[in-house]
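[audit] Reproducing an earlier prediction to check determinism. Same input, same settings, fresh worker. If the tokens differ from the archived copy the diff job will pick it up downstream; this log only records the rerun itself.
[audit] input (117 residues):
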Amino acid sequence: MTDILRVNGLSKSYGNQIGCADVCFDVYPGEVLGIVGESGSGKTTLLRCLAGHLEADSGSVEFVLRDGVRRDTLTMDEAERRQLGRTDWAFVHQNPRDGLRMAISAGGNIGERLMAI
């Protein structure tokens, strides 16, 4: 079985503060991965880097797209990442403002995701 998500060497620092360092994992079809840790341990930093909402300092995040092509999501442009977020990826944000486009109506936020399918 081939992995659908491969994270290798993902790191992010804020000056001399380490957000996450050398994170590596693979996710296979049907698997569920939980990211757990104490407050301030880097969970949100890791997820924001995975989603492309925060630029990682190093590493790669490879995902197998619907067409079977493996792509490094860190090199995708914003439109490609938004398409991925509307179709195959889902992140539940603690703060709704992080997951919604506030300049768009509630219906527009929902419709955008439905039209992508």
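[audit] rerun output stored. Observation attached for the diff report: The CA atoms of residues 12 and 56 lie 5 Å apart.
[audit] end
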